[in-house]
Known about the structure:
The chain folds into four domains: 10-178, Rossmann fold (3-Layer(aba) Sandwich), CATH 3.40.50.300; 184-245, Helicase, Ruva Protein, domain 3 (Orthogonal Bundle); 250-367, Up-down Bundle (Zinc Finger, Delta Prime, domain 3), CATH 1.20.272.10; 408-430 and 448-544, no CATH class. 35% of the residues are buried. The chain has helices spanning 10-13, 26-37, 55-67, 81-88, 105-115, 137-148, 168-171, 184-198, 204-213, 218-231, 238-245, 250-261, 265-277, 282-302, 313-347, 352-387, 455-465, 467-476, 496-502, 505-512, 535-544; strands spanning 44-48, 94-98, 125-130, 154-160, 175-178, 477-482, 487-491, 521-525. It starts with 9 loop residues before the first helix and ends in a 7-residue tail after the last helix. By secondary structure, the protein is α/β, with parallel strands linked by helices. It binds zinc ion (ZN). Zinc ion (ZN) is lined by residues 68-70, 76-77, 79-80, 82-83.
Amino acid sequence: MSDPAPYRIFARKYRPRTFAEVIGQDHIVRALSGAFEHQRIAQAYLLSGPRGVGKTTTARIIAKSLNCEAGPTIMPCLECDACHEIEQGNDIDVIEIDGASNNGVEDVRAIRDAIYARPMRDRRKIYIIDEVQRLTASAFDALLKTLEEPPSHAMFLFATTDPHKIPDTIVSRCQVFEFRRLREVDVAAKLQQIVDKEGADVEPDVLAAIARGCRGGMRDAESMLDQVVAVSTQKVTLQDLEWIAGLARPERWLSLFEAVTQDDAPAILREIDDFLTHGGTERDFIEQASDALRDLLHVALLGEDALGVEPSPDRMQRMKELARSMGRDRLEATMGLLFGLESRMNAAPLAARALLEWTLLRAARLGELFELGLLVDSLKSLAGQADGASISARPTPVSVPPVSRPAPVAASPPARTPVPAAAPKPATAPARSASVAPTPPTLTPELMVPVAETFPDLLATLEKARPTLGRLIRENLVTGNLSQDGVRVVLRPPSDRERAVIDDPLERSSLGQLHGSPGAWQIEYQSVQKGPTDQNLQNLLEAFDGNEETP
Ligand SMILES: [Zn+2]
């Protein structure tokens, strides 16, 4: 038997020939070994599992085990005609059928007519039907009749990636083996064997990246390795992998999420552009970025032993730093944004790229929310320690004047801000509704954060923490000033949409808790013409007013 093809792809060349060589499916190998040992071989097996994990390979090994001249044996000789021909896929008694293309009732009737004839040479007549879930309903009906009373020499090996599409009446007549996705370490080890046998020159990181990128499918992993080894003339690098196999080098994701953490919008857009320019699709991007986030989350939760495959020390250091600076909440929230992105893309495929950019730019802004949340939490817990009162939960509606609050640094008068005549009076003489003001909570010294010197300073802090709200206030500002009581701001009347943001109770309460704020904010609207409308701002607001996944 001469091999007609001078070059065989790795997946075929290194296909397991015996059960011992099958990787990552020990539970199936054990069960089959037991069945052969006790001669309790079923007449129909359903091999179910993701693509490229060894279902068809296992079917052929079962066929060899049954039909080998030295068999039936769990260790076929691999030398006899039956073993050879089954491996080549041309044994006359082992019939391989692609269920995707031979899925009609006539195809199944042809099987039924032929199956009663005795095998020509081998012990058993074996039908291997790949993608069996693709058979039509009438084809399944016809198949069922054969499965109910198969001749003793016949055997069926069905393979499927989608067992739920197979009628229960069929499944119940099969012994079912569920194949697992392969672990990354197992894939990487197999790739290493191939590299060694081929004498190929490949950076170790490349194998780890392929093992990660193939999502548990050995065939995909072997085919990626095949591509990069075939094309590269020198040592295969991560760069080759990205350009040839479309699998981004892990550094790309680290750079991307570093940019997200730093809210570096230009860098985010550059990374997306670079990925898409190299031939990856938006969906590839989401898939691979989600995997990278998952790695970071594992590092954040479980430490550096968390990953199946060891990254280089440099990269692990970067991952640890990134995981620490993002933190669990932000990692999870960013994952949530990416998961939501896929269904958005399905709804608007033409806007895929815009959606991708928009989502990551939003992810970059999550930091503000979390900083604010942390501040609120720490205020809550400090207030709780002080007297059980929760000052951060205190509502600050605009009609109620600010509650006085110890503010040691606020003794210095607002420097550069002009003080309008209507400035609130000092805390010792609270304004109009002193009677309704609640008793100020007793605060511990730790809670007395330094108060901003001037209103512009405070506004700058606000714009960092809450850019939209900050910008709205700046753009509509008439006057703003600080006192021991809190902050008083007069604005030109904004648009309804802007006003909805400014008057949002959550936004309002966040203002009083802003770092450097002497207390609650009192915001009044002047009855003058409103300022020019900023179209970009309008667009931004429209984009952010939905019920998004943002926490
Ligand atoms: Zn043999």
